[in-house]
Each structure stands twice: as structure tokens, then as C-alpha cells.
Input
Amino acid sequence: MNVENTFTYDFFQYTIVSHVFTLGYAAMAAGLVYFLLTSKNSLPRYQLSSTLSAVVMLSAFLELLVISLRWDSAFSWDGEAFSSTGALFSNGYRYMNWTIDVPVLLLQMLIVLGVTGAAFRRGWIVFTVAGLGMIYTGYAGQFYEVERSAPFWIWGSISTVFFLVILALVYRTVYGNVGRLPAEVRPLVKAVWWLLLVSWMLYPGAYLMPAIWDSADGVVARQITYTVADITSKVVYGILLAVIARKVSKHEGHDEAVASDVTMPRGGITDVAAPGRAA
Output
């Protein structure tokens, strides 16, 4: 059981969490529209990244919508505070969503950085195995967060090992490939590393929040942390990769190729024939 179910909440605490969930799934919906509308703005080999961003947005939107509905059903106003209805709130839905999103987010990086061949396959396999290992060991540990018994710390520590492996692989992937890209996008590519590092560091903090701040205010801080991490590591990250793909495509003449496909009628715009006048 998650610690969220062990507290009652005043009006402000409950409402802030509810609004944070709404912000989260609204951001995912906006991101979905953005990636669908801009997917053709880069070369075909990069367009899969935007398609995968759209998959991440849809997956995260559904997860945050479900978790918001669970929050609403788990607590009701008793005249003094929002107290438990008997229905349990669960952060476990987040882990199921990350099962989809984490491998996809890391795959997008390989695509945009132009990793191909055996290096692509090897990177994808290692990213996926380490990502799923991080997610499922964290998932196992969160069941013990109320009593914070040994499994909470053991599974959390194992998850952290996988987490550090992923960070090392991301660093090597980014800095091992940045030199092959146009100079104008290299700062953006390095920003991918820093964005992922900072945003992903929020997740262990949210996992440990029951031990750091065991109160209703801690729950509010935890859900804010999770949601900020989701928005930055999915929406902002996806947009940054899309901008990199767009700039690299432009550097390789994608804009000129698109422009050459646009044709105008000979002589410019044809006049519309007036009534009684031969066209």
C-alpha cells in the first residue's frame, strides 16, 4: 500500500494534488498534438522519433488520467477533511506506464543521434534491459513504503544500480556521438544529457519521499515531484529531440527539398473567370 492512503488531507492539500494531476495529463495531451503536427518537419529517418514521442504522450496521458480518477475515488470530504473512502490510491500505475515510456524515450535518443547498425542494436538492448530492471525493482520496493521495511531499501538500492547504469550509457551515447553532428546543434545535444540527468534525478527523490517527509504535505510534494519529472523527461525531452532533428535536417537540405516539391501554375495565380467571360 502507498503512503498516500495513510493520511487525511485538508482542502488545499487535496486540491493541489488533483490540479497537479490535471496539469500532467493536459501537458501530455498538448505534447501529443505537437508531435503529430510537427512529425514531417524533419528528414524521414528522424520522423520515427516524433511518432514515438506521440506514443509516449498517449501512454502518459492515459496513466495520469487513471491515477487522477483513483485519487478522486480514494478520498471524500467528510465535513472537515478529505479522508479515505476505502478505495486505495496507487502509484503502481506509474511503473506500468514507465514500462512503455522508458525504453521508447531511450530509443528516440539513439535515432536522433544517428546511431545505426550493431551499435544501435546493442544500445537498444542494454537500455531496455537496464530500464526494465530499474522500473520493476522500484515497483517491488514501493509496496513496502508504509512500514519502510528492508525490502523498501533493498529493492530501491537495486533499482538505483540500474539507474546509474542508464545514466552512464546515456552520457557515453551523447558525448560519443555529439562530434558527428553539425556544430550548431551540439549544445542542444549536450542539453539532452543535462535535461535527462536533472529530470530523472527527481524520481528517486519521489520514491524516497515517505522516508524524507512522512506527512500529508510530503504527499503533495511527492506528487508535484513526480509530475514535474514526467513533464520534463517526456514532453520537454521530446521537444528538444524534435528541435535537434529539425536543425540537422535543415543542415542536410531538408527545407530546400520540401520547397522544390511545391509547384505553382505557369504564369502565377490564374484569374477567376467573371460571369459571361470566357475562362
Summary: The radius of gyration is 23 Å.
